């Protein structure tokens, strides 16, 4: 088994299951320990899967779902055997394809770790809507939560930004590295259901190609947000808001 064969097998790996008893899976896992490059790929793949699982687990169960399943069970039992088999087969196929596609979509590709792509990805998180992993205005609770989830927690906020109201935080993923997303509210009127209008993303500088050197923040328009990007120590900071340039500069 070569490295590419092992990757194809490991895309179906599920931690803490009987997968390790499969001969091909066992062989691939042995190769992980022997091949440093494959080991790095496998660790990043497992980290991305953990993020996906966490997001799936965070999806709330709709009210009344249990009762709906029970009430529909009687109807399902009346489906003639051949049709039921077709439905189950189709569902199984969709699940398998979904996992394969998810593994493909989240697999890093060469050139995907540039600053421009990072900025677009993080701004996309803010614009598409997000679920905060922790909703609080307590800065110490936010740092403790991020630290427990292996995301950057030793970030340094600009003095003006420390005065802005916090609303919570979330842990995002970038190239197998965890990103801290700290959410703020400037006090301006917000659309219904929107918890904040200012977002700070913090990631290890080494994970982003062509990250700026230490110096003044670089301002740029990324999609619908005005952003400021700067490096301090070993961290890369990205601050985004829908406000104007003067407002953003006053927060730096």
Structural overview:
With 252 residues, this protein is α+β, with helices and mostly antiparallel strands. 45% of the residues lie in helices and 19% in strands. It has 2 domains: 3-105; 115-249, Protein Transport Mog1p, Chain A (3-Layer(aba) Sandwich), CATH 3.40.1000. It has helices spanning 3-10, 23-34, 36-58, 65-76, 81-105, 115-128, 139-148, 159-162, 245-249; strands at 134-135, 165-174, 177-185, 198-204, 218-222, 225-232, 235-241. The chain has a 7-stranded antiparallel beta sheet with strand order 1-2-3-4-7-6-5. Helix 1 crosses helix 2 (23-34) and helix 2 packs across helix 3. The relative contact order is 0.10. The model has no long low-confidence stretch (mean pLDDT 80).
Class per helix and strand makeup? alpha+beta
**Mean pLDDT across every amino acid position:** 80
Note the main sheet. Answer: 7 strands, antiparallel
The strand line-up of the biggest sheet is: 1-2-3-4-7-6-5
DSSP strand count: 7
CATH A-level architecture of the largest domain? 3-Layer(aba) Sandwich
Radius of gyration in whole Å, from Cα?
Answer: 22 Å
Which consecutive residue ranges, at least 5 long each, have pLDDT under 50? none
Q: In angstroms, what separates the terminal alpha carbons?
A: 53 Å
Number of helical regions: 9
Shape: globular
Order of SSEs, N→C?
HHHHHHEHHEEEEEEH
- The CATH class of the largest domain turns out to be Alpha Beta
Total number of domains: 2
* Percentage of residues in helical conformation: 40-55%
CATH topology of the largest domain: Protein Transport Mog1p, Chain A
Strand content: 15-25%
């Amino acid at each position: 088994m070569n490295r590419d064969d092992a990757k194809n097998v490991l895309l179906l790996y599920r931690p803490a299951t009987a997968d390790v008893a499969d001969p091909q899976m066992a062989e691939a896992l042995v190769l992980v320990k022997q091949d440093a490059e494959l080991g790095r790929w496998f660790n990043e793949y497992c980290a991305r899967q953990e993020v996906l699982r966490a997001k799936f687990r965070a999806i709330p169960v709709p009210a009344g779902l249990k009762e709906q399943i029970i009430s529909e069970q009687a109807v399902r039992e009346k489906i003639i055997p051949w049709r039921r088999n077709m439905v189950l087969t189709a569902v199984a196929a969709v699940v398998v394809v979904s996992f394969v596609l998810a593994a493909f979509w989240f697999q890093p590709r060469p050139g995907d770790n540039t600053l421009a792509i990072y900025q677009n990805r993080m701004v996309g998180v803010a614009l598409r809507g997000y679920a905060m992993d922790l909703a609080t205005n307590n800065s110490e609770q936010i740092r403790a939560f991020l630290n427990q989830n292996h995301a950057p927690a030793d970030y340094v906020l600009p003095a003006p930004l420390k005065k802005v109201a916090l609303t919570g935080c979330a842990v995002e993923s970038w190239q197998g590295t965890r990103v801290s997303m700290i959410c703020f509210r400037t006090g301006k009127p917000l659309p219904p259901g929107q918890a904040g209008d200012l977002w700070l993303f913090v990631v290890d500088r080494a994970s982003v190609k062509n990250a700026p050197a230490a110096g003044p923040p670089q301002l740029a328009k990324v999609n619908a947000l005005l952003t400021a990007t700067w490096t301090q120590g070993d961290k890369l900071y990205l601050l985004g808001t829908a406000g104007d340039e003067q407002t953003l500069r006053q927060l730096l």
